[in-house]
Amino acid sequence: MPAVSKGDGMRGLAVFISDIRNCKSKEAEIKRINKELANIRSKFKGDKALDGYSKKKYVCKLLFIFLLGHDIDFGHMEAVNLLSSNRYTEKQIGYLFISVLVNSNSELIRLINNGIKNDLASRNPTFMNLALHCIANVGSREMAEAFTADIPKILVAGDTMDSVKQSAALCLLRLNRTSPDLVPMGEWTSRVVHLLNDQHLGVVTAATSLITTLAQKNPEEFKTSVSLAVSRLSRIVTSASTDLQDYTYYFVPAPWLSVKLLRLLQCYPPPEDGAVRGRLTECLETILNKAQEPPKSKKVQHSNAKNAVLFEAISLIIHHDSEPNLLVRACNQLGQFLQHRETNLRYLALESMCTLASSEFSHEAVKTHIETVINALKTERDVSVRQRAVDLLYAMCDRSNAQQIVAEMLNYLETADYSIREEIVLKVAILAEKYAVDYTWYVDTILNLIRIAGDYVSEEVWYRVIQIVINRDDVQGYSAKTVFEALQAPACHENLLKVGGYILGEFGNLIAGDPRSSPLIQFNLLHSKFHLCSVPTRALLLSTYIKFVNLFPEIKATIQDVLRSDSQLRNADVELQQRAVEYLRLSSIASTDILATVLEEMPPFPERESSILTKLKKKKGPGKVPDVEETKKERNSDMNGSTEPASVNSSAVTMSTPSTSTDLLGLGSAPVLNSVAPPSAGGSLLVDVFSDNSPAVASLAPSAEENFSSPRIGSTDVVSDDPAAAVHDADELVDKFVCKNNGVLFENQLMQIGLKSEFRQNLGRMYIFYGNKTSTQFQSFLTAVICQDALKTQLNIQTKQVDPAVDGGAQVQQILNIECVSDFVEAPILNIQFRYGGALQNMSVKLPVTLNKFFQPTEMTSQDFFQRWKQLAAPQQEVQKIFKAKHPMDTEVTKAKIIGFGVALLDMVDPNPSNFTGAGVIHTKNIQVGCLLRLEPNTQAQMYRLTLRTSRETVSQRLCELLSEQF
Amino acid sequence: MMHFMLLFSRQGKLRLQKWFIAIGEREKKKIIREMTQSVLARQPKTCNFMDWKDLKIVYKRYASLYICCGMEDQDNELLTIEIMHRYVELLDKYFGNVCELDIIFNFEKAYFILDEFLMGGEVQETSKLSVSKCIEESDLMQETMEEYLSKPTF
């Protein structure tokens, strides 16, 4: 056994660790661990009470096993027991185990909280610290609830030890982050601010972290911290390196505190008070000056600490963005770092300069470094650094250097790491559009992008080039010519084919005069690549072909031949087949005039923010992309700027999809007609032409068989941008599912919610499928099942949260485990929240968990049935309802519904054969309720009489309500 | 704020994990796997930073051991390197020229020392003297070598 154990080493633990280390294989390790687990379990279960030391040792062994990556499902109780030990080491191990292993929703929390409470009240600083650490480590809501009132008191009490104050400050910070609503603001806040003046630098350091977090949320309340922070900072930066004793780190005075103070100041604008402002400027200048001084030590720790403060000071200067002098000095300093031999400094300088580039004072100064940055792109060995260089080039780009920067990025793209290609593509596309002086350059650039990195060119990029070409007639001929040439390449990317197909379909006529690109040649060129493409591209090409029919009547016959071929007309893909059939018919039936109207050139797209920009922002997260739009507003002659609103006829607006990134070209799932037919003219004729082919269009609507009982609900009223939830109160949703377990619960433009459920006795399991119908990711996707009021005690629903991001087109599944405790009336509510394109979506739907789901059917004879029927004759046991039929009175459908309701359908029981009888038992955890029902239809009056008898009044009533809605 | 700190060996064996955010075990394992893989795959002479999702990963190698921290975007990278260094210094001071074995056999100590230094993902106490004093004080409350050797081994 190695003699490395120190302090209170536990011999048994060391032996065990040695054993594990000596294991030759994974199997041997698992065997050894299982042996140990069995040993510990027997010790914990044994009759002999364990002494504190053994308990500590075993708990520590369990912890070790857990940290090796194995599951631990016992020992928690023993760990909690250790908390109440008076021996420090035992307590400490207990707390460590809890910090590492106890998750926030453990049932043990109450016991743990008890231990913590005792230690907090002990006035023993060591114990108090342990307790505070535990709260900060676990940070659960229950703990926040239990202790948020006490901790501020400990923090500001006059007699609290410094080390406890530090722990209390950071503990409060942690609770504020996890449960901000629970941390009370109050008179303690002003006293916390004054901790910035504390003698003890450790206390100031901890307090500054706390104040920074609080100030981000309530800047007003902590405003006074600005002047205190400035004076504290000033004292630190002007102190000699030895003044602060142990808070000096490699000759740098209190770097951690300095950085934290500088961060705190970044929560506020420049100080209004002239004196404070002057003092701060002095501090920042001192920090910049120190950067030029020779280092006091050769150690990397010295330069790291010093530069850490410098970079934070520069962040503050950029944040204030008000002192041109400081900004330019900062820029020069960063310029020096750009060529530093330390890779870290080059990385950070590029990163920091990125934000500097967006300041009008320093934008020009940043631009002078362009050659260095381009060089970094070419020569840096580290992909992280190259990535920062790309970011900086993007940020420093303006009209004067756009051509150079775009060219360099394209160059780099050829060899760029796969991980950053997509981002570079987006950036190039944005810059090319933004700073295009003439659009031929723009078109060339995008086609180059597709050529070099076609796989990384997202839909947004090629949609955008088409939007722009359609909206600008000066570039259409050039584009047609260029794509035609690009398509000559023997192997070209599918994205190029999409762009090419679309553009030639619209503007192929502009180059058809040239015999080298005659209509037939254009068509043959596109069609030669047709069979190598994916379905969506082929669908797009079919649209191009029908457009050709209009543009070039001379090749109509050729195109019709192609459409007529079996590979089109009988294509296995519904979409392709439908297009082929429809286009073929359109081309043969419609007159030239109608063709010309239907297949007219696309109207200009409505102007909107480039969806590429949205995508880039999303990719990088907020704050990471210097917003070119925002910072350079003065140059607004961009092609998509507001200066030239396109003339768009209103019907065209409805054609193009409402959101920026959805299916622009009407491929995917949108009806075929959208991409081709202008909605204005020839409408009635079109309906005729296509009338025998309508099912594909209809298939977009939620499938009809899902709503056999109730009209489909409108969807728009459920989604709202208003964060206040609009509960969809209509019970139709619930009614729809009374007699069945699967189907579509809800659907709107954004999402579809499907259900599958199974029930057995008093338990149920429901699978909820959330489908993202858009091509954009849903973010912060959050669902909650809410049982209101009495329902809380009647139903027990457990579920796991789903992944907060739902990709476009993806479906995620959530499983609910449901337990029926007692009979209930209301339905639980499913609340869904997510971000879509920046807007918060919030919707609530009732979940169809109804009492009848907990039925178990009971078969019985006629005799039994009527015997029991008579037993349940008390007036409150019977509920009867007479109602009008809402649906055709079909015996088979009625039978299916009764069976679907959950009871056994009893044949030959009722003397009247047209009546229906059923029996079943409702299972809840608390009771079981037998239930008999009888349904008497009167076809002449179109009425039903429904009678329910159960031993419980509430059950009879609820079941009657539920079932009577079904007929 | 720091989200997590991981210590792992060149072979990718995890030696210490400290989480300052509440996440599930599954997610933790995933992060640990991704971190060890991507940090170990880094070429020499590259910078100590990596972008990963919304976080900035700062890592440093000490002999056979890597320390890797997940930081928020606005956190100071260079100072994070020094947080790791200060932690190693604290371990050094306690164990006397710390090596990987010390951390394996005294993992609980490694956690205690880290707890004295960091809390809630923020630096609590930067003074080496104060932290060491705390740790030593707690050791004083413990038993002698003699007591240690007389303990049962199983």
UniProtKB/TrEMBL annotation, chain A:
Protein name in the entry: AP-2 complex subunit alpha
Pfam family, one: Alpha_adaptin_C
Region Disordered: start-end pairs: 616-660
Superkingdom per UniProt: Eukaryota
Keywords (A to Z) from UniProt: Coated pit, Endocytosis, Membrane, Protein transport, Transport
Domain Clathrin adaptor alpha/beta/gamma-adaptin appendage Ig-like subdomain, residue spans: 735-848
Biased composition (Basic and acidic residues): 626-637
UniProtKB/TrEMBL annotation, chain B:
Protein's UniProt keywords contain Lyase: no
Its membrane topology: Peripheral membrane protein
Domain AP complex mu/sigma subunit, first and last residues per copy: 1-141
Keywords assigned: Cytoplasmic vesicle, Golgi apparatus, Membrane, Protein transport, Transport
Pfam families the UniProt entry points to: Clat_adaptor_s
Entry-linked InterPro entries: AP1_sigma (IPR044733), AP_complex_ssu (IPR016635), AP_mu_sigma_su (IPR022775), Longin-like_dom_sf (IPR011012)
Domain of life of the native organism: Eukaryota
Subcellular location as annotated: Cytoplasmic vesicle membrane; Golgi apparatus
Family to which this protein belongs: Belongs to the adaptor complexes small subunit family.
PANTHER family documented for this protein: ADAPTOR COMPLEXES SMALL SUBUNIT FAMILY (PTHR11753)
Protein's name in the database: AP complex subunit sigma
Species of provenance: Huso huso (Beluga)
